């Protein structure tokens, strides 16, 4: 496009920012360029005490978005962050003071699709499960391919289930909920947990294993979408998380409960394991489910099964 400078941007911003709400004496906004399919705009007007002044519309943010897009397309010095400040004139008919600063902030650069951090996380999980049993190398339940930003429904490249065999026991575990999210910069291990289910190995054939693995990946979708589920499980010890379809009768619900184990060696610290347990409606029949997540009923059901909450 034709040249578009910071001065051009300030001239375009002036009439829009000048329509400040009553009581506003200054304004402060921060915007980012489009990175990994996402951009942001935050901020607003402030009063004399530095408190936020409510606005009736998003017009200033929309104008800021347009200005940042033009600056980004103008081919000038590289930047990914814009800070805009507005100051009300002291006297009527004077011009407001507007400043616009661009910078390149490495800390907000999103992880790219080939960032090695994803495989670092995967290797840490495999090492953990290899210490618990034998990973079934030919087993894979993985749905959907990642988009161009390496994002699946779990917001990272990994959305899969591992099968771990030990004498008399089969464990199915999610493999990806703790992978750092693609397309963002925050130092977090995904949703900060992984899920697992344990079975008596003698009770499941290949079709049964596949069925439960498909369920676990769907539960993983719900956990990824809920984001703070790990925090709620830690707080309550156990929760009634979701209902099951008729295919799993007599089991009707999935409980999630706290486990003592943690996966170490992940990029941003360790994460807890959360046990997923199918239960029948009779196990919580007659109990009060009105508290958060039906937590009391979930803890009672686990106790009846002789299962500890670690």
Task: Describe the secondary structure blueprint for this structure.
Layout: H1 6-17, E1 26-32, E2 41-46, E3 52-53, H2 59-73, E4 81-87, E5 97-103, H3 117-130, E6 134-135, E7 141-142, E8 160-166, E9 169-175, E10 194-200, H4 206-226, H5 229-236, E11 238-243, E12 251-263, E13 271-280, H6 295-304
Helix pairs in contact: 1-2
Structural class: alpha+beta
Give the domain tally. 2
Helix content: 25-40%
Number of strands: 13
Taking all residues together, what is the mean pLDDT?
92
The best one-word shape is elongated
| Distance from first to last alpha carbon | 61 Å
Q: Main beta sheet: strand number and arrangement?
A: 8 strands, mixed
Unreliable runs, pLDDT <50, ≥5 residues?
Answer: none
Radius of gyration in whole Å, from Cα? 26 Å
Oligomer: single chain
Structure description:
With 310 residues, this protein is α+β, with helices and mostly antiparallel strands. The protein folds into 2 domains: 6-108, Murine Class I Major Histocompatibility Complex, H2-DB, Chain A, domain 1 (2-Layer Sandwich); 117-304, no CATH class. The protein is 26% helix and 27% strand. The chain has 6 helices and 13 strands. The protein has helices at 6-17, 59-73, 117-130, 206-226, 229-236, 295-304, and strands spanning 26-32, 41-46, 52-53, 81-87, 97-103, 134-135, 141-142, 160-166, 169-175, 194-200, 238-243, 251-263, 271-280. The strands form 2 sheets. Strands 6, 7, 8, 9, 10, 11, 12 and 13 form an 8-stranded mixed β-sheet that branches. Strands 3-2-1-4-5 form a 5-stranded antiparallel β-sheet, covered by helices on one side. A hairpin with a 5-residue loop joins strand 2 (41-46) and strand 3. Helix 1 packs antiparallel against helix 2 (59-73). It is elongated and about 85 Å long. It starts with 5 loop residues before the first helix and ends in a 6-residue tail after the last helix. The mean pLDDT is 92.
């Amino acid at each position: 496009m034709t040249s578009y400078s910071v001065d051009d941007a300030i001239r375009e911003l002036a009439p829009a920012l000048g329509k400040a709400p009553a009581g506003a004496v200054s304004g402060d906004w921060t915007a980012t360029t489009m990175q990994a399919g996402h951009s942001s705009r935050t901020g607003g007007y402030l009063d004399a005490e530095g408190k936020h002044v409510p606005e009736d519309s998003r017009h200033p943010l929309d104008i800021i978005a347009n200005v940042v897009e033009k600056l980004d397309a103008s081919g000038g010095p590289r930047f990914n962050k814009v800070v805009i400040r507005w100051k009300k004139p002291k006297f009527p008919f004077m011009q407001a003071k507007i400043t616009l600063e661009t910078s390149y902030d490495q800390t907000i650069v999103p992880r790219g699709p080939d960032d090695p951090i994803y495989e670092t996380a995967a290797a840490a999980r495999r090492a953990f499960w290899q210490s618990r049993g034998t990973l079934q190398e030919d087993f894979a339940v993985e749905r959907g391919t990642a988009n161009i930003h390496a994002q699946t429904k779990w917001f990272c490249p990994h959305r899969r289930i591992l099968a771990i065999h030990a004498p008399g026991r089969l464990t199915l575990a999610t493999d990806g909920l703790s992978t750092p999210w693609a397309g963002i910069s925050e130092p977090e291990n995904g949703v900060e947990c992984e899920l697992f289910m344990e079975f008596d190995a003698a009770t499941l054939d290949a079709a049964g294993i596949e069925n439960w693995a498909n369920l676990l990946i769907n539960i993983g979708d719900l956990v990824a979408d809920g984001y703070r589920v790990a925090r709620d499980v830690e707080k309550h010890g156990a929760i009634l998380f979701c209902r099951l379809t008729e295919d799993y009768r007599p089991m009707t619900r999935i409980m999630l409960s706290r486990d003592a184990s943690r996966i170490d060696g992940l990029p941003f610290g360790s994460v807890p394991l959360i046990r997923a347990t199918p239960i029948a409606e009779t196990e919580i029949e007659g109990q009060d489910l009105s508290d958060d997540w039906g937590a009391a009923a979930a803890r009672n059901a686990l106790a009846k099964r002789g299962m500890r909450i670690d």
